[in-house]
Amino acid sequence: MRPFTYARPDTLADAVALLAERGAEARVLAGGTDLIIRLRDGSVRPEVVVDVKRVPELAPGIRARDGGMLVIGATTTMTEIAAHPLIRRDVAGLAEAAAVVGSVQIRNRATLAGNLCNASPAADTAPSLLVHGAVVVAHGLAGERRIGLDDFFVRSGLTTLAPGELVVAIEIPASGHGRIASAHQRRTRRRGHDLASVTLACGLDATGLTRIAYGSVGPRPILRLDTTGVLAAAASTDEARTPIFEAIFADATPSVRSMRAGAEYRLAMLRVLGRRALATAQARLAAGE
Ligand SMILES: Cc1cc2nc3c(=O)[nH]c(=O)nc-3n(C[C@H](O)[C@H](O)[C@H](O)COP(=O)(O)OP(=O)(O)OC[C@H]3O[C@@H](n4cnc5c(N)ncnc54)[C@H](O)[C@@H]3O)c2cc1C
């Protein structure tokens, strides 16, 4: 590991100033479950590591705002998200995704913002946040801006955060069409110590709009909508749903060189997980969960 300076600013202004001043030589540290590994293997070699866990604006916590929006502090851990009653009730797919990230030890450290900023195509929280229309709240020298999560991911390891910007919170807006019932599904080679071979979420509302987001089958997570109502309709046959699923999964481009799973297997699993997540979301919507 290359030696680096460790900084632990107490204010957002100090953190932003440090990140802006040091540019590519600085790296944000949250839970460290991705970053420490990369520091150790030398794939990132910053001069300064900026621990943001003392910055009040990034503090862990899940708050409900007027109008039904949920705001999740950047350093909220997977353990907190998986257990939180509001997340379990209103964003069930996210609670399920957070509950299967890594192992207990990883979930106690791993933060939601870290999962998104790491920009792994396999990030488990990304699909559920995409189907719920999540917004990333970023802060930099120019102040605050909001980035729709679908506009946040570029490719593995790269987001649209500007140099010097950090994520302070993730917002989950209330849907304009009542609640979105969601469900998360994934496949891994083994539990607890592996990233997903396929990760997927489905979100459904009372208008029949179905949102499906999936990851680990291309350079970034993908969000697709079914506006025809065919996926959502309880009376739809599997034959009717098949062409819609095919269109939704048309942009999956799994690597043929991955050590985790073959491309053919991932594409087959997308279709299985898509149907399972849809069925769970339908049941949740019907049950008012
Ligand atoms: C054994 C193991 C198992 C794992 N299993 C899974 C899994 O099943 N599913 C899954 O999705 N992930 C998994 N991971 C990956 C990892 O745990 C998650 O991505 C985690 O959420 C990262 O959060 P962190 O707080 O630890 O991030 P860090 O390691 O602290 O940071 C990750 C990246 O994000 C940047 N960053 C962090 N916070 C901010 C911020 N607020 N603003 C700007 N940039 C920021 C950092 O600079 C760094 O580049 C696993 C990791 C390990 C080691």
Topology:
Blueprint: E1 5-7, H1 12-22, E2 26-29, H2 35-41, E3 48-51, E4 62-64, E5 70-73, H3 78-83, H4 85-90, H5 92-99, H6 104-109, H7 112-117, H8 125-131, E6 135-140, E7 143-148, E8 153-155, E9 158-159, E10 166-172, E11 181-187, E12 198-204, E13 210-215, E14 222-226, H9 238-248, H10 263-287
Parallel strand pairs: 1-3, 2-3
Antiparallel strand pairs: 4-5, 5-10, 6-7, 6-10, 8-9, 11-12, 12-13, 13-14
The structure holds flavin-adenine dinucleotide.
Structural class: alpha+beta
- Trace the largest sheet across and list its strands: 4-5-10-6-7
Mean pLDDT score, rounded?
Answer: 94
- The CATH superfamily title of the domain at 181-287: CO dehydrogenase flavoprotein, C-terminal domain
Which runs of at least 5 residues are low in confidence (pLDDT < 50)?
A: none
Label the overall shape: globular
Report the total helices: 10
CATH third-tier fold name of the domain at 181-287: Enolase-like, domain 1
CATH architecture descriptor text of the domain at 181-287: 2-Layer Sandwich
Which small-molecule species are bound to the chains here? flavin-adenine dinucleotide
Please give the alpha-carbon distance between the first and last residues: 48 Å
Helix content: 25-40%
Compute the gyration radius: what is it? 19 Å
Succession of helices and strands: EHEHEEEHHHHHHEEEEEEEEEHH
Main sheet attributes: strand count, strand direction, barrel closure? 5 strands, antiparallel
